[in-house]
Design a protein that fits this description.
Protein name: MORN repeat-containing protein 5
Order of helices and strands: EEEEEHEEEEHE
Largest sheet: 5 strands, antiparallel
Shape: globular
Distance between the termini: 78 Å
GO cellular component, one term: motile cilium
Main location: other
Number of helices: 2
Subcellular location: Cell projection, Cilium, Flagellum
Pfam families: MORN
Strand order of the largest sheet: 1-2-3-4-5
Structural class: mainly beta
Strand content: 25-35%
């Protein structure tokens, strides 16, 4: 069994780095998620006893007094840190500029969704999962979609 300091790559692409004992996470260690987020924790027999999640942009999750995206302040974390852009220049996501979404697809937060195949791939276009009916409906209803129309200015004769 795994013992000592090490790393373990899970099938989802998440990597654990830290202390291992008798084949499980035990002691200080971090989970590094493919989306750039990190969960740093103290583990006991594979269960975190205390920890903190840090988003890819550096925002630390607080389970008490969480004010980010609370309905009153709808700015992205990068806007809170760097300020708002001038009027008329919208920031569509926390990532600025936002990812280019493949044509006909949606950005569902952890990757791109193709509604024709019902497949979700990560941002490096590797398979993540197939969407069930509920997830399909949620993505279609709420997520950003790639622009699928082109509008060209026609010159008048």
């Amino acid at each position: 069994r795994m013992e000592g300091q090490g790393s373990y790559l899970l099938p989802t692409g998440t990597e654990y780095r830290g202390a291992l004992r008798d084949g499980v996470f035990d002691g200080e260690g971090s989970l590094l998620f493919p989306n750039g987020g990190t969960y740093r924790a103290v583990w006991h027999r594979g269960v975190p006893t205390q920890g903190k999640y840090i988003f890819a942009d550096g925002l630390e999750y607080e389970d008490k007094k969480w004010h980010y995206c609370d309905g009153y302040d709808r700015r992205f974390y990068t806007e809170i840190c760097s300020g708002l852009k001038p009027a008329g220049i919208s920031q569509l996501t926390n990532l600025d500029p936002p990812r280019k979404i493949p044509e006909g697809c949606y950005d569902c937060g952890d990757g791109f969704y193709n509604p024709e195949t019902r497949v979700i791939v990560d941002y490096k276009l590797r398979f993540l999962r197939n969407a069930d009916d509920d997830e399909h409906e949620w993505i279609i209803r709420t997520c950003r979609k790639a622009w699928d129309e082109t509008t060209e200015h026609e010159l008048k004769p």
